[in-house]
Specification:
The protein is an all-alpha fold and 119 residues long. Helix content is 66%, strand content 0%.
């Protein structure tokens, strides 16, 4: 059976342009911080996929991993119906803010963001 897609129905972009811009902004900050993790001796990347791709392709592998993650978020956001797509992208933005903040603090202060709170 072949299912036809209505011609007037385009891709359903999740959220507002501001939400999508926030996603790509924090994604880019996290990408830069992750690349820097491989160039400083006091920080290590713990994501096994990113580490594997870095071992195989070098810095290009880190960018490839980041593009794969962003692509997955975009595809999932396009497939989910409203309002789940907005909630999903909002959740990803919040997680990226936490991850990117931790990564930047780790690179600058040489301690993770939550280190003062962990005994």
């Amino acid at each position: 059976m072949v299912t036809a897609i209505a011609p007037d129905r385009g891709l359903n972009r999740p959220g507002s342009p501001g939400l999508r811009t926030a996603f790509f902004g924090v994604w880019f900050v996290d990408l830069v911080a992750t690349i820097l993790f491989f160039s400083v001796p006091y920080a290590t990347e713990i994501n096994p996929v990113t580490v594997f791709l870095h071992d195989v392709f070098g810095v290009v592998g880190v960018v490839l991993a980041a593009l794969i993650y962003a692509g997955l978020v975009i595809v999932i956001g396009l497939l989910l119906p409203t309002p789940f797509d907005v909630g999903f992208v909002m959740s990803v933005v919040v997680m990226y803010v936490l991850f990117a903040s931790n990564n930047v603090v780790l690179l600058v202060a040489r301690e993770p963001l939550l280190a003062p709170f962990v005994p």
